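BACKBONE GEOMETRY TOKENS
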Amino acid sequence: MQIVDEDKIRHIAKLSKIALKDEDVPVLAKQIEQILEYVEQLNEIPDNIEPLDNLTGNFNRLREDVVVDFNNKEKIISNAPKSKDGFILVPKVLDN
């Protein structure tokens, strides 16, 4: 069963503004045909299958969300490698 022929490949390439060599057209037609046949297999999947949302069975276990007061500027600044006037100094990231 051939769904995609060489004329369709040329038409799609023209619409997509893709330049194709004549020797590439049959190869692409065959590859697209194989892709469509593979995708067609999805129609064989029964409708009553539950979606798979976790392969390992290990669900994301998050810690309790607890508010912690970090209102100790001096302690935070003291942990920084470099600081100036109450601010943490970091290396320049962007160039002018």
